[in-house]
């Protein structure tokens, strides 16, 4: 009789990045407007290649950023399978409010209106996080930049394990944790000690974008435990 597979958390290797991005894509599908706009066509081969390239570049330059994987193990001899990913970062300084300061806008968003829209979304997205950093008295915050669990392996404990890893690190560093969550993720974060500060983040964009779907995110924080 096979034992029940268990979930373990480990550092994501460079070779894991394409699989990690695929997990992101399949986890959110087209139900997360921020992901759809930040990673155009993420469910296509070209979009996944581009997204994987950007993930790897982020991983290599982010000295205070940790890429994690949740791995499904078993005693059956089958290869371990990546079923979830998380990106945690110690943000000591506010993030650039202009997306062009950290991304090649023309390369990743060749269409002018799409580019303009994502620039406006980003400016709104980072505002609560940057406010928390500003109010941290120079310590910064420990931010959950991303959490994604493959839809075939949700409710197996992978999400909680990845969040718990970051919470433990935040406690060690004595830092406030922050996360921007979809409605699906809020219950998990609350279970892990986060509390809602902004029930629905504001995404103010130009009137010409009124017909476009905007993110619906909750901003949550967690105080470090001793």
UniProtKB/TrEMBL annotation:
<dbReference type="InterPro" id="IPR052523">
    <property type="entry name" value="Trichothecene_AcTrans"/>
</dbReference>
<dbReference type="GO" id="GO:0016747">
    <property type="term" value="F:acyltransferase activity, transferring groups other than amino-acyl groups"/>
</dbReference>
<dbReference type="InterPro" id="IPR016181">
    <property type="entry name" value="Acyl_CoA_acyltransferase"/>
</dbReference>
<protein>
    <recommendedName>
        <fullName>N-acetyltransferase domain-containing protein</fullName>
    </recommendedName>
</protein>
<dbReference type="Pfam" id="PF13508">
    <property type="entry name" value="Acetyltransf_7"/>
</dbReference>
<dbReference type="InterPro" id="IPR000182">
    <property type="entry name" value="GNAT_dom"/>
</dbReference>
<feature type="domain" description="N-acetyltransferase">
    <location>
        <begin position="85"/>
        <end position="212"/>
    </location>
</feature>
